[in-house]
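We read letters as residues; the fold follows as C-alpha cells. A sample entry reads:
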Amino acid sequence: MHQLTIASTTYRSRLLVGTGKYKDFAETRAAIDASGAEIVTVAIRRTNIGQDASQPNLLDAVPASRFTILPNTAGCYTADDAVRTLRLARELLDGHPLCKLEVLGDPTSLYPNMPETLKAAQTLVKDGFHVMVYCSDDPIQARMLEEIGCVAVMPLASLIGSGMGILNPWNLRLIIDNASVPIIVDAGVGTASDAAIAMELGCDGVLMNTAIAHAQNPVLMASAMKKGIEAGREAWLAGRMPRKLYSADPSSPTSGLIGS
C-alpha cells in the first residue's frame, strides 16, 4: 500500500497514537508497540519530556530515536498559549519542527476554537513549524488551514474522548475530496470499526488516544486498531461494490444449471 507522507517524511503506519491516560509509561510503550504507530503525540502541558528533571521522562520509554514525537497543545485555549507551548517543545526536542496544534473552545466539549486555531496556525507556519492541525469538520475552514500552509489537516470525527465514532461522514468526504495534504481523523474513535470506516472514507490516517488507553485491555485494543486501519485502507483502495436496494444479483451464474 502507498505510504503516508507528512512534511516530506514517509511512514509505513497510518495510525497515530497519543501517550496520555495510561496507568504508567510501561503500558504506554506496550500499547504503542502493539499499534505499530510511528508518530506518537505528547501533550506538552501534561507530560514530562524534560521540563522537570526530577520526574520520570516519557522519552525514556518512548525515545525520539525510535518514534517521531509529535508535541501537541492539549489544554491550550488561546493562540498565544498554543504558540508559546510549541516553541517550548521545539527547544526540548532540539529544534524538531513537526507539531500538532489544537486550540480548544471550552473544557467541557473540547471542541476546537477555530478563530484562535487559524490565528495560531498562521504564526506557527511563519515561524517554521510543520503544523498538523486539529479542527472542526468544516470543509471551508479545513481548506483555509491548508492554504495557510499546514502539512496535515485533522478534523474531529466526534468529540475528544467520546468514543462516538464517525458522526458526519459527509463533511469528512467534502474535506477529503478537496484536499491536497493528508487528512487525518483526530478525536472520537471508539473501536476498530470506527478506524476502518474513517479509512474507507478515504482518510489518510487516524489519530487516537482514549480509545486505546481506556479500553479494558489497551494493548489488545491497540493491536485491533492497527488491523482496523489496515483493513479500511485496503478496502478503500479496492473500491467497494455499489450499494443497491432490491436488486438481486446472484453470486453464482444461473444459466446452465441442471433443470434450467
About this structure: The CA atoms of residues 188 and 248 lie 36 Å apart.
